[in-house]
């Protein structure tokens, strides 16, 4: 029994227990190829050693600083990389914590 309201009411969902690379393993030991995308999801896989090391290094330095009050080296470096990839005249970025729908169709 669950207290969560899932997107599919009345359907028992697999219970994800762990993940490695591109696979999620449920509590029954079944593996699933993780082809999903959405909020807070990136295509780097699960438990990638380089990603985990980068996360640990950032957490050891600074977990979070509200962007309404602070800037950080990590944010400034990301903005610089994104601007360098963007076409002219795009020369600034606005960082958000989730997917944003365009104001108009692209």
Automatic annotation (TrEMBL):
Is Ligase included in the keywords of this UniProt record? no
Q: Keywords in UniProt for this one? A: Pyridoxal phosphate
Query: According to its record, what are the GO cellular component terms?
Result: cytosol
Q: Which InterPro entries match?
A: Aminotrans_3, PyrdxlP-dep_Trfase, PyrdxlP-dep_Trfase_major, PyrdxlP-dep_Trfase_small
Superkingdom, natural source: Bacteria
**Gene3D superfamilies in UniProt:** Aspartate Aminotransferase, domain 1 (3.90.1150.10), Type I PLP-dependent aspartate aminotransferase-like (Major domain) (3.40.640.10)
Q: rRNA-binding among the record's keywords?
A: no
Query: Which GO molecular-function terms appear in the entry?
Result: pyridoxal phosphate binding; transaminase activity
Family per UniProt?
Belongs to the class-III pyridoxal-phosphate-dependent aminotransferase family.
Q: What is this protein called?
A: Aminotransferase class III-fold pyridoxal phosphate-dependent enzyme
Q: Give the species.
A: Vreelandella sulfidaeris
